[in-house]
Amino acid sequence: MGERHHQRHKPPRALAAPRNLVVVCAPLRSNINLSRIVRTAGCCGITRLISIGTARIDPKIARDAAEHITLETHRTLPPVVDRLGAEGYRLVGLEQTNDSKNIHQYPFESKTALVVGNERLGLEEDILAKLDDIVEIPVWGLPFSYNVATATAMALYEYCRQFPEG
Amino acid sequence: MGERHHQRHKPPRALAAPRNLVVVCAPLRSNINLSRIVRTAGCCGITRLISIGTARIDPKIARDAAEHITLETHRTLPPVVDRLGAEGYRLVGLEQTNDSKNIHQYPFESKTALVVGNERLGLEEDILAKLDDIVEIPVWGLPFSYNVATATAMALYEYCRQFPEG
């Protein structure tokens, strides 16, 4: 195969249009989880992230994404969800509910707000009631639940797979 | 929509056969990254993970996966890769190289060893030369590289998407 060699930190792929996905984090307990989500979102070309509560970005974890993502912070989640809905975003929660859809078969709309929940509590039921769809990531073994930053990374992967050019 | 309610920690999906995927971690700097990979692999129903070097599992992070995954540890990576190749595994590295394939279009073989690299160095070139294929996850923005546990989670997601029943 000739010589195979590293090409780390390749130039990124081009997007035909800015990403229409907004990531919305319910109040998270952990600055680490928020910061990991910011790093992943940055790599995915996402430019807008909304964080509720007091979790703060650690730039050692989020890296350059900390400077390139517009982070909005708010005190409470319900009015944020209402506003995004009024702005025309499809409101999609990442959670396990009685009516959650398998993300493997879920066709994302381009203009989507992905709402992720607290590490322990997930998304509260008053929020679930406001969302258009709930998607879940299949689980096959213990501990039966993905870390919130891991689950968000998988959901962002799936969205980007469906919209490789934005 | 009636009442939408949580169903957290749903029973896992069934696999028609045990997962044929083995995760192989080059020497990692961080116990946290290894432990995160173990948790994610456990959720994906993977039962065999090989770790090179001295990184140790933190059960607070890996949760129950720490007890349900068979972890093999070895001192060096090359003989492990050779042995897995002889056992008939397709050897797939997760890396950016001159010939890496976009994971979005990569059809995994069921019997695959997914080899992931060190946080800083990635996979060394003597290992790259031994592998059948290299897959990369597209990147669209800064910091232009996913954390190793995040990238592994995305690759496991893609494998499981292709083999939802094992």
List keywords for this structure.
homodimer; 166 residues; alpha/beta; seven-stranded parallel sheet; 6 helices; 30% helix
CATH architecture of chain A: 3-Layer(aba) Sandwich
**Pair with the most extensive interface?**
A-B, 62 and 62 residues
Unreliable segments of chain A (pLDDT under 50, ≥5 consecutive)? none
C-alpha-based Rg of chain A, rounded: 16 Å
Strand order of the largest sheet of chain A: 3-2-1-6-4-7-5
Largest sheet of chain A: 7 strands, parallel
Name of the level-1 CATH class of chain A:
Alpha Beta
The strand count of chain A comes to 7
Beta-strand percentage range of chain A: 15-25%
Count up the domains of chain A.
Answer: 1
Question: What kind of oligomer do you see?
Answer: homodimer
What is the CATH superfamily of chain A?
A: SPOUT methyltransferase, trefoil knot domain
Would you give the CATH topology of chain A?
Alpha/beta knot
What is the helix/strand order of chain A? EHEHHEHEEEHEH
Structural class determined from secondary elements of chain A: alpha/beta
Form type of chain A: globular
Helix amount of chain A, in percent?
25-40%
Number of helices of chain A: 6
End-to-end Cα distance of chain A, whole Å, is 33 Å
The whole-number mean of residue pLDDT values of chain A reads: 95
